[in-house]
């Protein structure tokens, strides 16, 4: 029904306006008595065999929602009811910021992709803190970044501010230095500034009675040499793991008319490269740390490939938009079926 009726209707309108319309629609649906239970019955697959223990946390299933969809933690509880095992909010910055000028979100229908140049638009970390105080059992990751006006030499201060503000309210952190839509942000992926940033956050982490897992989200555009540096940095700073990958600046092989828009590309064109990065990190590190696989997951098979390549968990974003919420359950069913086939 989603792909045959709902998606064609939604895709007739501006993608950013549709995003906010969908948020309002879901929020209103969940206010109808009994609606939440019906949606949970339709989309959730609760099975103890799907549980995963990763970096000290228990995930009820390995399929999560990637950052960028619920930037300000406005709908994490409702989205969790659709079957996700965890929700990642953000990217959050210390101060509110409007992001880049509109139009800044583009569908590439022929390529089953999206280009965005949102620019970390969010209401600021304090608003996110207020909303997360209402959490009741949803496993939430906090994706943190720097404000656009903050120069790179002071970026650490922004990350530390949001880290401390969110510490009691999220289950894990993601350091986002890989978005292509904040000027010069990707320079923070270089070995020296990245090591300094992660070490500083880990120092803050160790001040707490119980530390939180810190993950690094990386770009798919890194070279093998840079990926080897990432492995070294993860091991040196002792962070919990890596999210591979963010959006790409590559436009190779695209067909859609919006293919030359600036911004980060996500969706089906990223499937192969994201899996390559996961496999490289897993093999070259000898599986030394967990990896969350994200990028171009539009089917259960795509998710299984990422898990086979070395990912412990996966996340959806563009595939969720193109395929609808049924994709979550399909992936979890495929994971169970694969587990059963191994037993036979």
TrEMBL record:
Biological processes, Gene Ontology terms: 'de novo' pyrimidine nucleobase biosynthetic process; 'de novo' UMP biosynthetic process
Binding, substrate: 71, 116-120, 176, 181, 246-247
Domain of life: Bacteria
GO function terms (MF aspect): dihydroorotate dehydrogenase (quinone) activity
Membrane topology, record value: Peripheral membrane protein
Substrates-to-products reaction catalysed: (S)-dihydroorotate + a quinone = orotate + a quinol
Protein family (similarity comment): Belongs to the dihydroorotate dehydrogenase family. Type 2 subfamily.
Full protein name: Dihydroorotate dehydrogenase (quinone)
């Amino acid at each position: 029904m989603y792909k045959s009726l709902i998606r064609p209707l939604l895709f007739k309108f501006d993608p950013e306006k549709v995003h906010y319309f969908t948020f309002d629609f879901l929020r209103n649906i969940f206010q109808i008595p009994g609606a939440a239970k019906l949606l949970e019955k339709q989309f959730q697959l609760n099975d103890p065999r799907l549980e995963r223990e990763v970096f000290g946390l228990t995930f009820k299933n390995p399929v999560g929602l990637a950052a960028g969809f619920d930037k300000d933690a406005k709908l994490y509880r409702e989205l969790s009811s659709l079957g996700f095992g965890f929700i990642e909010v953000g990217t959050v910055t210390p101060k509110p910021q409007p992001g880049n000028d509109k139009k800044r979100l583009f569908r590439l229908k022929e390529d089953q992709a999206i280009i965005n140049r949102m620019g970390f638009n969010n209401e600021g970390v304090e608003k996110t803190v207020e909303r997360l105080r209402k959490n009741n059992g949803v496993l939430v990751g906090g994706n943190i970044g720097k404000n656009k006006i903050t120069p790179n030499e002071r970026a650490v201060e922004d990350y530390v501010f949001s880290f401390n503000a969110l510490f009691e309210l999220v289950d894990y952190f993601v350091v986002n230095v890989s978005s292509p839509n904040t000027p010069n942000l990707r320079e923070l992926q270089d070995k020296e500034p990245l090591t300094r940033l992660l070490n500083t956050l880990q120092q803050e982490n160790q001040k707490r009675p119980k530390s939180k897992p810190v993950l690094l989200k990386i770009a798919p555009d890194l070279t093998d040499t840079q990926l080897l540096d990432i492995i070294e940095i993860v091991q040196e700073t002792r962070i919990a793991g890596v999210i591979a990958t963010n959006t790409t600046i590559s436009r190779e092989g695209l067909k859609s008319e919006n293919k030359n828009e600036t911004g980060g590309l996500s969706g089906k064109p990223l499937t192969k490269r994201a899996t390559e990065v996961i496999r490289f990190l897993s093999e070259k590190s000898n599986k030394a740390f967990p990896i969350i696989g994200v990028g171009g997951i539009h089917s259960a098979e795509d998710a299984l490939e990422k898990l086979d390549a070395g990912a412990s968990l996966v996340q959806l974003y563009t595939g969720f938009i193109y395929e609808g919420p049924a994709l979550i359950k399909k992936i979890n069913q495929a994971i169970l079926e694969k587990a059963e086939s191994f037993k036979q």
